[in-house]
Specification:
Length: 260
């Protein structure tokens, strides 16, 4: 009976073994690189989340302190504002408007003199019902081209007049981080209302336009000799490439009686 042939076992050559080993090492390195990239991405995302949460928490604390300070320095403001009825607001159609405007200007001038030199001081609230904003604003401080004061809340441009002084009141605010008070500024439309609650008056503005401009195009908020408000923020979201501006004309106001 014939013997069966012995099976031949192919032994890989040294070159073939080197190729196999190199491929295995490449796969191992790729797995490690992939895992490293995933880890870096997760850590990066975590860092971003912690940064935004941290800035918002900081601004929330600052807003609480500003509200307390505003209440202490103007103890009757909250009660006076709560007691204002719709019919108390002076509108353009009323015959007494000119006399009331003169009284408003006198009150604004007095407040301006009081605030001069007190940068980062809480000066009132910005209320925008359409986008759920009710935030304390501070007097701005542009010395040294710093905008650090915006970490606490929106800030009034100190070179622009206060409401009632016959010009354009301008305030800046963040759209991301630090509480993002102007995050939804792009959702505002003509006809929406902006209300400034100042220690001397509550002033309402009707939005006339929302525009996107280059950072250097500040002439759009220049004083036109009319009672206006301009709220300014960076645009688009997470970028400072442009500026978004919500601008409105004063529609009505009511004076807050000075505390005795």
């Amino acid at each position: 009976m014939a013997e069966e042939p012995t099976p031949q076992i192919e032994v890989p050559t040294r070159v073939e073994r080197l190729h196999v080993d190199a491929a295995a090492r490449r796969r191992k390195l790729m797995r490690r690189a992939g895992n490293a990239l995933i880890a870096v991405s997760v850590l990066g995302l975590l860092a971003i989340v912690l940064y935004y949460v941290g800035t918002c928490a900081y601004t929330a604390r600052q807003q609480g302190q500003l509200r307390d300070q505003l209440a202490v320095e103007n103890p009757g403001l909250a009660e006076a504002a709560a007691g204002v009825a719709e019919e108390d607001f002076v509108t353009a159609a009323e015959a007494e408007r000119q006399a009331q405007l003169e009284a408003l200007k006198a009150a604004a001038d007095a407040f301006d003199a009081q605030i001069t030199g007190h940068k980062r001081k809480p000066i009132g609230r910005i209320v925008i019902p359409a986008i759920g904003v009710d935030v304390v604003m501070v007097e701005g401080d542009f010395e040294g081209a710093s905008e650090a004061y915006l970490k606490a809340g929106p800030g009034h441009w100190p070179e622009t007049p206060f409401p009632g002084q016959g010009g354009s009141f301008v305030a800046s605010g963040h759209r991301t981080t630090w509480g993002a008070p102007f995050f939804k500024l792009n959702e505002l439309e003509p006809g929406d209302e902006i209300e400034l609650v100042m220690p001397y008056a509550i002033i309402r503005y009707t939005i006339t336009r929302v525009m996107i401009v280059a950072p250097e195009d500040i002439q759009v908020v220049a004083d036109q000799g009319e009672e206006q408000v301009s709220l300014v923020a960076c645009h688009p979201i997470y970028s400072a490439k442009e500026r978004i501006i919500a601008q409105g004309d004063m529609s009505s106001f009511v004076l807050i009686e000075p505390e005795s």
